[in-house]
Design goal:
Belongs to the class-V pyridoxal-phosphate-dependent aminotransferase family. By secondary structure, the chain is an alpha/beta fold. It has 13 helices and 14 strands. 2-acetamido-2-deoxy-beta-D-glucopyranose binds near residues 243 and 244.
Length: about 375
């Protein structure tokens, strides 16, 4: 009965060239294998303070209320919504792929009055369209900066100002774009920003940086009702992360100690490399990948180069092929993950992610080689 668990653990090496998780560099893997210390030890607080500094840099913010969630990107999504919205309040969600759909569902579940601004996958929102929706009087407006299910990078300049004018908080998801495409939390007047550990940051999945500015803090700490989640309540989390100015940091939950070690190391790598260099590299490798894909006769799903997400590239499914078959072939023969669409983009696209540590021309060549091989071997016989 126990034979399976008694076998030694086996984990294959995979090229993680999908939309996440991405491969983790040895230095980050090593940091996660350090001995465990207590989550309330002074050394751990110091590591958490370092993480906070690293997030400040990565987000380009000086917000005191900056922490990492004990959980994946979804934990940050729920934390943002649960803390800043009360049941019955209006929120507006921009939906042009799965991420807006998810945030709308999260807001619906906690009893918010959800309004949706919907586009087909690949579409982006103009500031004029966003301006019009003040009529719903939302307390929160959500937008995905890197819409990884469609491969779109949504421009965010000016939207923070529109939200301010309408007395609405601006919430931006950068799980798939942080480190790959420029974002300036403070300069762009973003009130709440979050990301995940396992995409361009190249840490293991399971932690998620999030930051709230003073406007967001004012809203979330002046509510009439308690947030529906105890685990994600920012009153407790801000104390755990030493953001509330109190001398005593009380036990709330046990943070993922190894995950925080790894997150610290991945933020350190980004700081060493520099954001500008990381953005430049993603753009350069993405452009190289686009050329290679076009040389294979494939069609990029987002026609406008400037709207493509540099970390996750989407291609239209080539005529005469079954995308599932191609992906299975690529995994089987190249030990490489690429993926299909997600949510509304299923059946429309295939996705190739070259993020952070994986973002190299040599990896683009590997991905192109695997795709060329699949194109040769997976063509449907017209029976
Ligand atoms: C991957 C992703 C998420 C979800 O992150 P998890 O870590 O899987 O919970 C959210 N938003 C975007 C844009 C993503 O790409
Ligand atoms: C900001 O955070 C520090 C700890 O990092 C804390 O000591 C300080 O009181 C905080 N400031 C405010 C205004 O909460």
């Amino acid at each position: 009965l126990l034979t399976c668990i008694l076998r030694p653990l086996e984990v294959p090496y995979r090229y993680l060239f999908g939309p996440g998780p991405s491969n983790v560099p040895p230095r980050v893997l090593a940091s996660g294998s350090r001995p465990i210390i207590g989550h309330l030890h002074p050394e751990m607080y110091e590591i958490m303070n370092d993480i906070k500094k690293g997030i400040h840099y990565a987000f380009q913010t000086e917000n005191n209320m900056t922490i990492a969630m004990s959980g994946s990107g979804h934990a940050a999504m729920e934390c943002a919504v649960f803390n800043t919205v009360e049941p019955g309040e209006s929120v507006l969600i921009a939906i042009n792929g799965i991420w807006g759909e998810r945030v709308a569902e999260i807001a619906e579940r906690m009893g918010a009055n959800v309004h949706k601004l919907v586009k087909a996958p690949g579409g982006h929102f103009t500031n004029i369209e966003i301006e019009k929706v003040g009529k719903h009087k939302p307390v929160l407006f959500f937008l995905a900066h890197g819409e990884s299910s469609a491969g779109l990078c949504q421009p965010v300049d000016g939207i923070g100002d529109i939200c301010r004018k309408h007395n609405c908080l601006f919430l931006v998801d950068t799980v798939a774009s942080l480190g790959a495409a420029p974002i300036f939390m403070d300069k762009q007047n973003i009130d709440i920003l979050y990301t995940g550990s396992q995409k361009a940051l190249n840490a293991p999945p399971g932690t998620a940086p999030i930051s709230f500015n003073d406007r967001a803090c004012h809203k979330m700490f002046n509510r009439k009702t308690k947030p529906v989640s105890y685990l994600f309540d920012m009153t407790h989390l801000s104390n755990y992360w030493g953001c509330d100015g109190k001398a005593v940091r009380a036990y709330h939950h046990t943070g993922p100690v190894s995950g925080f070690f790894a997150l610290r190391e991945s933020l350190a790598i980004l700081a060493e490399k520099g954001l500008e260099e990381s953005w430049r590299k993603h753009k350069e490798v993405a452009a190289y990948l686009y050329r290679g894909l076009e040389d294979l006769g494939l069609e990029l799903f987002i026609p406008d180069k400037d709207l493509r997400l540099p970390s996750v590239t989407t291609i239209s499914i080539p005529e005469g092929y079954d995308w599932r078959e191609m992906l299975v072939y690529i995994m089987k023969h190249h030990q490489m993950e690429m993926t299909g669409g997600l949510g509304p983009s299923i059946g429309m696209v295939m996705r190739i992610g070259l993020m952070g540590y994986n973002c190299e021309k040599t990896n683009a060549d590997k991905a192109l080689h695997a795709l060329a091989d699949a194109l040769k071997n997976c063509k449907k016989s017209k029976a």
